[in-house]
Design goal:
- It is a single chain.
- Helix 1 runs antiparallel to helix 4.
- By secondary structure, the chain is mainly alpha-helical.
- The C terminus is likely disordered.
- It has a single domain, classed as Phosphate transport system protein phou homolog 2, domain 2 (Methane Monooxygenase Hydroxylase, Chain G, domain 1, Up-down Bundle).
- The protein is elongated, with a radius of gyration of 19 Å.
- The chain has six helices and no strands.
């Protein structure tokens, strides 16, 4: 029974890695779609959402089956709980990629506008956070996860700067209001992806160290409430 359980844990880990790859790919495609004003990539993101949703359900079902199979020891239990929460965050990363794709599709219909915001730079920082968060899970290294937590503040500052500059643009150049609003929403979506990467990093730390860091270094952050059960 214990051998079957360990095999089940390995399968769960592989499924989550696949989910992580799908979510990371969606974000990368969304960022590139913005840079290139590429409708084809946007369509790929929309079509790929179905697979992300299917994979999310498969992982949850597998995790619940493992919990029903036997009473896992402390670290195995933390692993299963962390996987279910990471799984949810990855699905939401996919949702944010869809939101970005929809905004890009709107922007492509409009004349190109010179906007005072470096979305590609913000996108690169966010993609790095997602990638590093997944690496921390793959390697079971809390140190890598901690680095993700520290990167979150950088992305938050980028979002704040984007908001200030784009609101100014809307006031000074009313003809570019719709493009500026789309860019503002994309910046907000990217900041949300960074939030989810941070959540994943926190869950890795919880799994590896058994430590709940949700309300320590990020107590003053304005991130959304966690879905981690109280």
């Amino acid at each position: 029974m214990r051998t079957r359980f360990q095999q089940g844990l390995d399968e769960l880990r592989q499924k989550l890695l696949r989910m992580g790859g799908l979510a990371e790919q969606a974000v990368d495609r969304a960022c590139q779609a913005y840079i290139d004003r590429d409708l084809a990539r946007c369509q790929m993101i929309l079509e790929g959402e179905t697979m992300i949703n299917i994979t999310e359900r498969e992982i949850d079902e597998h995790a619940f089956d493992l919990l029903a199979m036997q009473q896992p020891m402390a670290k195995d239990l933390r692993f299963i709980l962390a996987v279910t929460k990471i799984n949810s965050d990855l699905e939401r990363v996919g949702d944010q990629a869809v939101n970005i794709a929809e905004r890009v599709m709107d922007m492509v219909e409009l004349p190109a506008a010179d906007l005072p915001v470096d979305i590609p730079r913000m996108a690169a920082a966010v993609s790095a956070m997602v990638r590093r968060a997944l690496e921390s899970f793959i390697e079971a290294k809390a140190e890598l996860a901690q680095a993700v937590l520290e990167m979150d503040n950088v992305v938050d500052r980028m979002r704040d700067e984007a908001f200030i500059m784009l609101v100014k643009t809307m006031n000074d150049r009313p003809e570019a209001t719709r493009q500026a609003l789309d860019a503002l929403l994309i910046a907000r979506n990217l900041e949300r992806v960074a939030d989810h990467a941070t959540n994943i990093a926190e869950d890795v730390i919880f799994w590896v160290r058994g430590a709940d860091v949700r309300h320590n270094v990020h107590e003053l952050n304005s991130r959304r409430p966690r879905h981690f059960p109280k």
